[in-house]
Design a protein that fits this description.
Number of domains: 2
CATH architecture of the largest domain: Orthogonal Bundle
Shape: elongated
Bound molecules: iron/sulfur cluster
Order of helices and strands: HHHHHHHHHHHH
CATH superfamily of the largest domain: Hypothetical protein, domain 2
Radius of gyration: 19 Å
CATH topology of the largest domain: Endonuclease III, domain 1
Structural class: mainly alpha
Strand content: under 5%
Number of helices: 12
């Protein structure tokens, strides 16, 4: 397993490789980020941005989402996976925002997690990016990178990954680290064909060493 000292080396490398890592979901306010993040489940940010470019022109407030038929909203997001369920959740959370929060997105992860379709990852993304509250959302990239490096065991849950990374990373770095690991996983340590041969973390990475041994033996 990775040691804390080795994790610090990882953090330095993530920051050096991706100093400008940021949230790639286009949004202009917390409400748009909440909608975009909800839409991004099991879907790429690129596709979400393509859809929200028009969506956010048409729907600007929670009232706008509840003023149309559900079929119309489904149709507006139909190129996104699970669009029926996502449309239902957008409608339900818009109603909740109007009824209980004056139409404003609350800056509180635990409250957000009570919203329809909003899990821990989505809530963390919203509070950190929209409100500047340090948080560390574990998505598929963060989970894969942490497990490949040996930061976590393969059987660990996303919550266990989140807790370990938060424990070993200074709080003020949580949000930047989250973006940097996502970029590292999206553009370097990809699910298929990670760039182990040119990875600065290879000397300490259990998965990378295993993969390079296999390549050497081929
Ligand atoms: Fe990912 Fe390979 Fe680098 Fe390990 S060595 S972090 S598996 S790219």
């Amino acid at each position: 397993m990775l040691t804390k000292k080795q994790w610090e080396v990882c953090l330095e490398n993530f920051a050096e490789m991706f100093p400008d890592a940021h949230c790639e979901l286009v949004h202009a306010n917390p409400f748009e980020l909440l909608i975009a993040t909800l839409l991004s489940a099991q879907c790429t940010d690129v596709l979400v941005n393509r859809v929200t470019a028009d969506l956010f022109q048409k729907y600007k407030t929670p009232e706008d989402y509840v003023s149309v038929d559900i079929e119309e909203l489904q149709n507006d997001i139909r190129s996104i996976g699970l669009y029926r369920n996502k449309a239902k959740n957008i409608r339900a959370l818009s109603e909740l925002l109007i009824e209980s929060y004056g139409g404003e997105v609350p800056a509180n992860r635990d409250v957000l997690m009570t919203f329809p379709g909003v899990g821990r990852k989505t809530a963390n993304v919203v509070v950190s990016n929209a409100f500047g509250i340090p948080a560390l959302a574990v998505d598929t990239h963060v989970e894969r990178v942490a497990k490949r490096l040996g930061m976590n065991r393969w059987k660990d849950t996303p919550l266990a990954v989140e807790e370990k990374i938060m424990r070993w990373t200074p709080r003020e770095k949580w949000t930047d680290t989250h973006h940097q690991i996502i970029f590292f996983g999206r553009y370097h340590c990809k699910a298929q064909n990670p760039a182990c041969g040119e990875c600065p973390l290879l000397p300490l990475c259990r998965e990378g060493k295993k993969r390079m041994k296999v390549v050497a033996n081929e």
